[in-house]
Structure prediction request, 559 residues.
Amino acid sequence: MLSNNVASYIIYNKQDMGAIQMIGDMQKWTPNVAGIIEHAKEIHPQTEIISRLVSGEIHRSNYEKVCIRSRKLASALEKDGIKKGDVVATLALNTYRHLEMYYGISGMGAVTHTLNFRLHPEQAVYIINHAEDKIIFVELPFVPILEGLQDKLNKIQKYIVLCEEHEMPETSLKNAISYEEYIKDGDEEYKWPILDDDAACALCYTSGTTGNPKGVLYSHKSNVLHAQAALTAMTIQPDDSILMVVPLFHVLAWGIPYFGPMNGLKLVMPGMQMEGEPLYELIDQEDVSLAFGVPTIWMGLLAYCRENNKILSSVKNTIIGGSALSLATLQEFDEVHDVNVIHAWGMTEMSPLGTTNVPTPEMQNMSKEEKYAIQLKQGRPIYGVELKVVDDSGNELAKDGKSQGHLMVRGPWILQKYFKADKDAVDADGWFDTGDISVLDEDGYMTIKDRAKDVIKSGGEWISSIDLENAAFGHPEVAEACVVGIPHPKWDERPMLFIVTNSGEPVEKKSIIDFLSDKVAKWWLPDEIVFLKELPHGATGKLQKFELREEYSNHYMEK
Ligand code: AMP
Prediction:
């Protein structure tokens, strides 16, 4: 149980709930996210929503249009028999239509379930059936994926293809109809319903590496609270033009689809084209001032700028999360493009924001090196999120910048249990184990050292694969690096470094080891370096270290 005590922060202890309290006289608040898009229509009607369509063409909408079309969609769904609590899926790109679905589906009381188009087909079938999706909205290029799967999808009644009527493809999909035809006769004056206090709003599945994916069912309230907290915890300005590279299918695009309209921010969405050149064009043309994305996307953009002498002149800030930020990326943004980098951390189970690393007044007087050392940390908790680090027995460790352990979190936008699970995913005091291994310091900063399943223990000591990867990434020939612990007869485990070079060809191993020698402890230096053409990435772009660990598991044992 959670209570929100303004004076003493948040009290989770159940015993505190026993006392009889005088109840405040303010209005009862049962948010519906549709209130956000209505606010945007009222206050920021002409603010633009820019999308690159599948055709490559740039489409311009605004908050007024998105709101009215969401109303039409909501009323079309209602006419179609969709009820409160039904789950409706999207297999879609970042475009204005996806934004309309966020509001149209959730706003009428159904649940928006965002599907990742990079999922393995078996996982997609499992997820769609587990969620009991009734309708799937599908982007044109993904129609063939669903045609191949539809015989296994138990509950789907209809497929709505995200296109104009005249663009509708020949398809075997059941009851297929174009999006534009579907909403054509929808009611522009549709009135959003009042929802229950904790009504479900959206559903995302985590990309687990073992077992079946697990669903996280967000509520309207958690999404609104998260969006408000996110707005205050990042350097967002009312006149910002936001590049939303983070996909709408992955953990609600970090809350941007909610906090963007809340603050009337211009949204710029890249659709399918996430490579350096089209991203640069979009940033330049649309005067993007704030860009949200994961490190791999920025690496492509930075490489394009480097090779073509381009500068990201309109961008003031970039918010980077999803994987660790490296010094090389930070330096290039700062020194070449004069872009301030804000490192952030979170996860699907946290809506996702947990920490952000925004500039502090003290940082203004620091040397570059001191500033960078702070910026590379994952940041400090945003209001509403509590963090602690515990040892294997659950004892809390000191916040001393050294004690490393399991990172636990709790707060109003952190899950209580997985979708349809029998048991809570949190302990009796509401703490959720993130699966990350971290340290906290005296100033409240959190640094991720590893995923618990990826930690490397060598001779009884920890080696941080993330620190080692980031050090390797600074080498001028290294495009991507991945460090994995491989069983070793003497040391338990030893690190193995996998590298993709800029040219795709191997470079001298000695040059990598020499480069690392003054950056990490000697015993951290990898015993083996393997050059690969590409590294294994999962559906959300994260490294799939278990694949490499499995493949090379006997490497040191056999020597
Ligand atoms: P997901 O639920 O797919 O968003 O993945 C969440 C996980 O991504 C976290 O538990 C971390 O392991 C990792 N992650 C997210 N942000 C960062 C970051 N800034 N640095 C390092 N790892 C991160």
The pocket of adenosine monophosphate is lined by residues 206-207, 251, 321-324, 343, 345, 347-348, 352, 378, 434-436, 448, 451, 540 (CB under 6 Å). Residues 388 and 487 are 30 Å apart (CA to CA).
